[in-house]
Amino acid sequence: MRPIALGGMLVWVGLLVAACSGGSAVVFGSDAGADAANPPDCPTAFPTLGTRCASEGLRCSYGCNGGAQCDTGAWATTPMGPPCATDSGANDGSRRLADGAIVCGTESECASATGGSFLSCSPGGRVTGCGICFAPQNPCSTDSECLTLDGAAPPKPMVCGPGGPCVCPAGGKSGSCIPACVSANDCGPNLACAAGHCVAKPCTTNGECSNTSTGDYACGASHTCGPKACASDADCGGHYCVDKLCYPQAGICVPPAA
Fold first, then answer.
1. What strands lie across the sheet with 175-179, from one edge to the other?
2. pLDDT tens, 39-78?
């Protein structure tokens, strides 16, 4: 979809980011003073890693341990420090922050602290789910459907990639045509390039999987690199065990996407 004007493009991208972040304007575990100092173009809610953004180089902060930067058209999210100080005034047995947010490692901690199960445990307090979804720009089901776009060969090879968790199928097609990778350099950390697709990196030992600022990785039972499994924070080398996977950010109890 080609925008007709720069202003139109910015509006379209803003709606896309809102859809992927669940459409919620609530940031849990945040420091209001830090959020208030954000530039006006920052999303109100902590953006989802990899979703599109328009203002290149824009930096946004979300509380005392979350940040995001617009990098080559997509949001990169990073921890900014340790979790907020806990509130010793909590009397329900939960790990509460000074602003009332609840630190968690499992869904059951959220349920026991609130007397219900509508909250989920999310790394860094990111709202989970989509709220609304959007159609893929160039819908596809197979690579062959991406050989030509608009009746002409694209400038570089294209393949049918996953549309992402917030994509609504268009005509039964939930994939989207994307540029084919040439090497692992075209893919993210712990990924390899195979037949134009970025796939999980093959491995035989944990040492072949690199840890990054956005996650801990290990060689799994399928002999590919993936998020490191854990039973407690002690398994994560200084990071946090949230829903049995290691993350650089503590879990925060959040409501479902609006």
1. 139-140, 175-179, 158-161
2. 777 887 778 777 888 888 888 876 555 678 888 788 887 6
More confident residue, 160 or 255: 160
Q: Are 127 and 45 in contact (CB under 8 A)?
A: yes
User: What is the three-class DSSP state of 229?
Assistant: strand
Assess whether pLDDT exceeds 90 at residue 194. yes
Q: How many CA atoms lie within 13 A of 180 on its CB side?
A: 15
State which H helix or E strand residue 241 sits in.
Answer: strand 240-242
Nearest in space to 121 (alpha carbons), one of 258, 256, 251, 257: 251
**What is the maximum span of the chain, computed from C-alpha positions, in angstroms?**
65
The residues pairing with 191 across neighbouring beta strands, listed in sequence order, are 200
How far apart CA 198 and CA 161 sit, in angstroms, is: 9
For residues 243 and 247, give the distance between their C-alpha atoms in angstroms, rounded to a whole number.
10
One-letter amino acid identity for 129? G
| CA Rg value for the chain | 20
pTM exceeding the 0.90 threshold for the entire prediction = no
Burial (0-12, 13-18, 19+ Cβ within 10 Å), 205: exposed
